[in-house]
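REVIEWER CHECKLIST
Item 1: Sequence provided? yes
Item 2: Single chain? yes
Item 3: Sequence as submitted:
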Amino acid sequence: MNQLSGKVALVTGASAGLGAATARLFAERGATVFGIARDAERMAEVFADIPGGSYSSVDVTSPAACAQAVSDCVATFGRLDVLANIAGFHKMRHTVTMTDDDWAMDLSVNLNGPFYLCRAALPHLLETGGNIVNVASIAGVEGEVYSAGYCAAKHGLIGLTRALAIEFTKEKVRVNAICPGGMPTAQSTEFEAPENADWDLIMRIASPRGFMETEDVAKTIAFLASDDAAAIHGAVYRVDNGKGAG
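Item 4: Structure as written out by the authors:
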């Protein structure tokens, strides 16, 4: 399966979880992968299995660092065809005890970072007829308890996706988003509930069918990044193991 053959893909959050699974799958399907994340040591482990790939330690909350990452990718591989915005941050907190820094962190990682990367990548994607896949969350299409900042950011990321899709309707570039449900990543399985949390509300987050595998969600990202999805632009896909069916 070489749907991504010849494409250069920049994957954020590539050191673990869905980002790592996507980087590996992109490479399996023929793409040349440039990964970014803060943890260079963990990325080295991931990219040991990705022949021809490259990576860089990047803080996506920094506009300058995001712009440099895109420049480094293009300088290394000569082009950019796919931007997969996967890096994310989620920590549950009671809204009334959230600090300004808590709120800022949610928006900085989950919304500002993708914007900075889209802004830097779009001139190159317009040249190649490339595409963007933004990874939002089911929290971007519905509420989620103790997650006001995260929900606001992920709703915003969907809004950004749709705004870009409209702005670039007449161009070859495509912009889409997916909204994953729960996966067995550290962010989902090792979270700390706020003090005096209502577990009945927390458990509403999960699908009755349980967690999905990161590899299964990565397949949707790979499809949207491929030419098989040439007619898909401005779409928002729920990939939630049936949570939204009821």
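Item 5: Key structural point noted by reviewer: Residues 8-239 form a domain with the Rossmann fold fold (CATH 3.40.50.720).
Item 6: Recommendation: ____
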